[in-house]
Description:
The protein is an alpha/beta fold. The chain folds into two domains: 4-75, Helix Hairpins (Orthogonal Bundle); 77-156, Transcription elongation factor, GreA/GreB, C-terminal domain (Chitinase A, domain 3), CATH 3.10.50.30. It contains three helices and seven strands. The protein has helices at residues 8-37, 46-70, 125-130; strands at residues 4-7, 72-75, 91-96, 102-108, 119-121, 138-143, 146-156. The chain has a five-stranded mixed β-sheet with strand order 5-4-3-7-6. A hairpin with a 5-residue loop joins strand 3 and strand 4 (102-108).
Amino acid sequence: MNKVPLTVKGAEKLREELDELKSVVRPRIIASIASAREHGDLKENAEYHAAREQQSFAEGRIAEIEAKLSNAQIIDVTKLDANGKVVFGATVEIEDIDSEKKVTYQIVGEDEANIKEGRISIGSPIARALIGKEVGDVVTVKAPGGDIEYEIISIEYV
């Protein structure tokens, strides 16, 4: 499996979710299964089947997070020497040249991406266009509605 790029914050959020699943969710599901077993016939016991389904989802998510963390390449953007270029983890302010609308994005791993919070995946068209560029550069992003040109206004490594 390939290395999964993660910011320090992204890795911490995954560790917190994993801890929550193992220390809170898993014991609660086990208790639900034990309680449902006490009600007798398991074939027609909806509580038991629902608890087993929850257990399956939780165990699947635990395995998924453990795999991601074991294959993670955790990148601390504050310690990178990026020479003023856009790199993974950087926060970039860009301006649409046509509409003059400004927007700020942080380039993060796939699991951390959340457009509402201004975090875009390293694999997104905008991030791919920005990587390696500097302040003042103009990049062209191929969008479904046509090409969009953005100028890089600022780059921060926080």
